[in-house]
Design a protein that fits this description.
26% of the residues lie in helices and 18% in strands. With 301 residues, the protein is an alpha/beta fold.
């Protein structure tokens, strides 16, 4: 049963992530996603929904089919201009409502604008060929965790490949340093319906690579992504959504450095700055005399 509103506002159990935002819905989003249900979700999170695009409309949530047909809603939104009204996909609402462990968080709508999606679709065939070749060449990298013929490494809408490399600098008994590396994967199945699973590997100088896949099974995206974020927090001591805020440097945590030089960093919370220059160096890695030098085979420190 849906939470009730008090005085026209959402109950405390739901974040008002859409507060002050005005939406219009256009198109058929599927049998299980009725307009009435979408409107309820938006209102319960502080937003409002109109039937037609007006000067107050800020977001037109639209199907790709209606966008390509340039229906009346789309024409009206375009007349307002992209700075006043953004035409976005249903994924924008869904991701906002499921972000931050299903509590909801406002995300940057620019990543979900259908104009950008349409461009990606036009370039999609060439990109798919390139990625297929890339994954086939990299297949040996994760074959112990997932069959490269059945899985690829998941790539989000911001083009981040979920092969996340964590590092830490370890001080040995001879006072020399060595680099430990912990790589977290999120895999996506080639077959429909899409299923996802997590895997990891641990490498360090002088020891055999440890493949950490036991206990992780095929699951719907949000369940697998929850496991991915939990493993990231276990190894770094910080939340995945907070990865741009500067992660903990306390032992025995690993360090994650955001990709630089305009490489994809993934979908980030609104207001999170991304790095634009400089390169990774040993100063980016965790240094600690007390950091543990190995992890057990089940992936726990």
């Amino acid at each position: 049963m849906a939470p009730r509103k008090r005085n026209g506002r959402p109950t405390a159990s739901l974040k008002a992530i859409f507060a002050g935002k005005v939406f219009v819905l256009s198109g058929d989003f599927g049998e299980k996603i009725a307009h009435a249900d979408i409107e309820k979700y938006i209102v319960l999170r502080g937003g409002s929904v109109q039937k037609e695009v007006t000067a107050e409309t800020q977001f037109l949530v639209c199907t790709m089919a209606n966008y390509k047909k340039d229906v009346a809603h789309v024409k009206a939104a375009r007349r307002l201009g992209v700075n006043r009204c953004k035409i976005v996909s249903w994924d924008f609402l869904e991701d906002c409502m499921h972000a931050s462990s299903l509590k909801g968080r406002w995300l940057d709508p620019r990543d979900y604008q259908l104009s950008r999606v349409a461009t990606r679709v036009r370039d999609g065939k060439m990109e798919q060929v390139r990625l297929k070749i890339q994954f086939e060449n990299q297949g040996h990298d994760f074959a112990r965790l997932a069959d490269p013929k059945l899985y690829i490494i998941y790539i989000d809408q911001a083009y981040l490949q979920y092969k996340i490399i964590l590092t830490r600098l370890m001080l040995q008994k001879n006072k020399a340093y060595k680099i430990d590396k912990f790589t977290i994967y999120l895999f996506e199945s080639n077959a429909l319906p899409r299923l996802y699973k997590v895997g990891a590997k641990y490498t360090t100088k002088g020891k055999a690579t440890q493949w950490l896949g036991e206990g992780y099974f095929d699951k719907p995206f949000f369940d697998a992504f929850k496991e991915f974020k939990a493993l990231f927090k276990e190894k770094t001591g910080d939340e995945w959504d907070g990865r741009c805020d500067g992660l903990k440097l306390n032992p025995p945590y690993f360090r994650y450095v955001l990709p630089l030089d305009r490489k994809p960093v993934g979908i980030l919370p609104l207001g999170c700055a991304t790095p634009t220059s400089a390169s990774k160096s040993k100063s980016d890695l965790v240094t600690s005399k007390d950091a543990r030098s190995s992890i057990s085979g089940d992936g726990k420190q």
